[in-house]
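Spend some time on this chain, tokens included, and walk me through the fold:

. . .
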Amino acid sequence: MPIIASAKKAHRASLRKHVFNLRRKREMLSSVKEVKKAITTGNSDGAEKLLPRVYKAVDKAVKRGIIKKNTASRTKSRLVAAIRRTQETKKS
């Protein structure tokens, strides 16, 4: 535990920030999960409609430093690729 007053204050601040970071991360992961679920059920149109929400959540997580920029890029890229694959299998 911190002993110095400024360290105590910094600890309290970090605990408050932790709550916001968890909330943002949970929102991001749940939206990614929804898209993956839509993809597995074969609902590529529904998954495509959810993409803006995922992009927003992922970009906010990057902005706040919760995930790294390349991780966000990889996540978005993989989701779009998965949606495209399901659309191609529907056409075939």
Q: What stands out?
A: The domain at 5-91 is CATH 1.20.58.110 (Methane Monooxygenase Hydroxylase; Chain G, domain 1). The chain is about 85% helix and 0% strand. The helical segments are 5-40, 44-63, 69-91.
